TrEMBL record:
Region forming the signal peptide: none
Origin species: Actibacterium mucosum KCTC 23349
The name this protein goes by in its record: Oxidoreductase
A Pfam family hit: GFO_IDH_MocA
Domain GFO/IDH/MocA-like oxidoreductase: 129-247
Record InterPro entries: Gfo/Idh/MocA-like_OxRdtase_N, Gfo/Idh/MocA_Oxidoreductase, GFO_IDH_MocA-like_dom, NAD(P)-bd_dom_sf
Amino acid sequence: MKLAVIGLGMASKPHLAALKLLADQIEVVGLYSRSESRRAAMAAETGWPAFDSLQAVANSDAQVVIVITPPNARAELVQTLGAAGKAILMEKPVERDLARAKALVETCEGFGVPLGIVLQHRYRAGAEALADLMASGRAGKVLMARVSLPWWRDQGYYDTPGRGTLDMDGGGVLITQAIHVLDLMLSLAGPVAEVMALTGKTPLHQMETEDFAAAGLRFENGAVGSVVATTAAYPGGAETLELECTHVALKLEAGALTLHWRNGQTETVGEVTGTGGGGDPMDFPCDWHRDLITDFAARVQAGQAPRVSGRDALRVHRLIDAIERSARTRAIAQVEAEA
C-alpha cells in the first residue's frame, strides 16, 4: 500500500510515528505542507520525500492520502484528491460546521472515493471491548449515558493563530476535543433525539469560541444522558464515558473499561494511558493511530467501506450542531435526522 501525507503540523505527530511502525506494510511516497520550510524539515527528519505541490500528490502513485490540515483548508484538497481517485483518511472534524461537512462527504461520494475520519478513540482496547459487549447484547439496553471531559489547555495553545476560532476550527472544546468521546458515545448508545445545552467561555482563556459546554440529552431509544466538556480544568484529567445498562454499569476512563455487573461481579479491560487532556495535547501513544491506519488501508485494498466513514462522522457533527443551537437559543434543540 502506497500512502502520502498532507499537513505536517502538531496533529501529524502520532500519524508519522504510526507510519514508522508500519514501514513493513505501508510505503510513504511523500509528505506535503504549504510551508516549504516545514515540508523540508519533516522530510529530513523522517527520511521520506516531500512533494512540492498538491497537484504532485494527486499525480503520484499514492493509493491513500492522509489529510491532517486544519478544517478550513480541506475543500480544495478533497476536490483535487477525489478527482484523482485517491482514498482519503482525514483528521476530525470533517469540516467546521455541519453544512460544510455534508458538502465534503458528498464530494467524496460523487467521486466514488473512500473517505475515512480519524476518530481514534474507537480503537482503544477498552473501547473495542465495550463495542463487542454492546454488540453481543449481554449489557442489555442503554438507560443512561454520561460524558465528562475535564481537559486543560493553556493560553499558549489558543494563542496559535486561528486556534479556537470559527474561521479555522469551527468552534472550541466541542468540535476539537469532545468530538472523540461524543462519537464513541453515539457509536455505542445510538443516536440522540434532542438536547438542552449551555456553552461559554471562562476567564481562564482569551479565545473566540467556547472552552466549556454542558448538555442534557434524550436519546432516540428513550435513554437520557449528560455531557460536560471543558479545556479549563487545570491540570487536566482523563475523559470518561459511563453507560448504565439493563445488566451492567460501564465506565470507560482513558482507555480502561470497568464493568460492574448487577449481580455484583466486576471486570476490567484495557489500561489507563495518556489522553492528551493535560498541558501537552500530544501526550498519548500512537497505537490507536497505527491500528486505525492499518484498518483503513486493509479496507481500501479489500474494497470495503471505512470503519468510520465521512457519512458515519456526520452523526457527531449533527449532535454538536444541536448542542450549539440549543446554547444559542436557550431552548431544547432537535438533532437533525439522518438522511
